[in-house]
Amino acid sequence: PVAVQGVVGGTGRFAQAVAAASGARILTGTTARALSLSTSGRWSVRAHTGGGPLTLTADAVVLALPAFAVAELLLPHAPLAGEELAAIPHASTAVITLAFSRARAHRLPEGNGFLVPPVDGRTLKAASFLSNKWAWLGAAAPELFVLRASVGRIGEEALLELPDKELVRRAVGELHRAAGPLGEPVAARVTRWDRGLPQYGVGHHDRVARIREAAGKLPRLGLCGAAYEG
After folding, report:
1. Looking at the record's lineage, which domain of life comes first (predicted)?
2. Based on the domain organization, do 25 and 43 belong to the same domain?
């Protein structure tokens, strides 16, 4: 059996299927600005869309947002939870997707990818060989070798300020040294995730317990996301 498995066509298909099956009204491009709780116990969410302000009312609210965004919403209602959420550190990262011509590559790497320890002082922190990892992707583009490189650790925010072309140049250079000469990429895309990775430092488990205890005093409000149990 293969070492890893996924969804044919990408995990985005799973999210799309769940959204379609839910029958819910889904608003994209919408930012929650504030929460309020009425005397009758109903929640109101003040939001902003591309078309202007919007207020939604609901019996219950689930906050599936980054910790720093939840902190702003909860501070007026559960100050302790808001303060603890705001204190969770986050690392920013960028994902560099590269496509190489199989015909031009001197040698194609085997395996699923590699990790780079911080002590090595490299720009890259990981690379995932997508064409090897996901059989459906290899079959969809048999003439290409597609991989994804990751950059950006905690404390490396300045790295993410580099232009896309420079990040691609550094990634390709380090990939050639680590995996062999692949030639120049025929396509490249840089995707940046500002504060996208919450950091689980010493005491994080206790912090999450305090957050859940404080937020749990609010009626019909749930918390979920990567900032809590991973």
Report:
1. Bacteria
2. yes
